[in-house]
Design brief:
By secondary structure, this protein is an alpha/beta fold. The chain has six helices and nine strands. The protein binds nicotinamide-adenine-dinucleotide.
Amino acid sequence: MSIEAPVVVEVGLGDRTYDILIGSGLLARAGAEIARRLPGTRAAVVTDANVAAAHLDALKASLETGGIQTAVITLPPGEKTKSFAHLEEVVDGVLAAKLERGDIVIAFGGGVIGDLAGFAAGIVRRGMNFVQIPTSLLAQVDSSVGGKTGINSPRGKNLVGVFHQPKLVLADTGVLDTLPIREFRAGYAER
Ligand SMILES: NC(=O)c1ccc[n+]([C@@H]2O[C@H](COP(=O)([O-])OP(=O)(O)OC[C@H]3O[C@@H](n4cnc5c(N)ncnc54)[C@H](O)[C@@H]3O)[C@@H](O)[C@H]2O)c1
């Protein structure tokens, strides 16, 4: 893994302005980057089983280095996870970890995890801090930016959600090494 200086893109939204950091090796500095912007906070990491197997240990070590206490909520991979049932699981996990409004929900996964965790962050305690660490190509180039969050309803896709902007997006291009080629290709055009 090479560690290079990340590209920083500022998304200018007045008092909701946030940075997108793009580069290889960013997971290793995630704890420091988050702690610098949101000092003294604790976090719930929401992820899926595939991403957890490949990268969760690295993220946990990085958050620990930044002094960020972390609870982890690991969900099954796949579009079906964007459901009311899993939203309830995430909300309950965040509350069980006794996180406060100023604490952070970290979405660590593809677009499914980003949309679901972002929605949970938007509604728990009427809106918690939210950090996106997108791990699929689609999530890095599209879904992690812009603040669109939500889940699917039995009546259709993406029908329930809120706009909730992240405080920071960390796009580590190195994590794409473990992305299955089919998912990599899907990142070029949304299914
Ligand atoms: N909010 C928005 O603006 C927006 C925009 C476009 C799409 N979306 C949503 O994004 C979702 C699709 O996102 P997606 O294509 O990332 O799907 P996804 O989150 O299901 O990820 C695809 C698969 O890749 C795996 N994966 C992800 N990162 C990995 C990694 N680094 N290593 C190994 N495996 C990895 C996941 O476990 C999953 O099996 C849809 O629900 C869509 O509605 C949202």
